[in-house]
Specification:
With 142 residues, the protein is mainly alpha-helical. It has one domain. The chain contains 5 helices and 2 strands. Helix 1 runs antiparallel to helix 3 (52-69) and helix 4 (92-109) runs antiparallel to helix 5 (111-117). The longest helix has 19 residues, at 13-31.
Length: 142
Amino acid sequence: MRLWSLHPKYLDPQWLVALWRESLLAQAVLRGDTRGYRNHPQLDRFKSHPSPLAAISLYLTGIHDEATERGCTFDKKKIRTVRKAVSLTVTKGQLDYEWLHLLNKLKLRNPALYRDWQNVAVPDAHPIFSVHAGDVEPWERY
């Protein structure tokens, strides 16, 4: 499971679909609807949020918005209704780590997309995140 801190615009179509599915699974975990993946480290930042279901719902909304922009039809009814706006933080170190990870994967998997993104110096974060100074997040598994 990889719940990217990066903006979903950087993902190729297969990764965008995978992120949607993995985020729906994360929502199910946070709702207590499944027994699998309950202790996955990628969920820690959502679990520790005062409103974890609102946070994952807004995260999913960002993915849905990107998919819609690309002409994909992800079912928005699968996203739990959000009653309040919330945000999450991510460190610059985490964003940099994910960016290099993504570029290395794209170089092999989708060279054309790699060429499009390789010169981006400062990638955008997913819309739910505000970026602050810091190293790679403690929940990241290398």
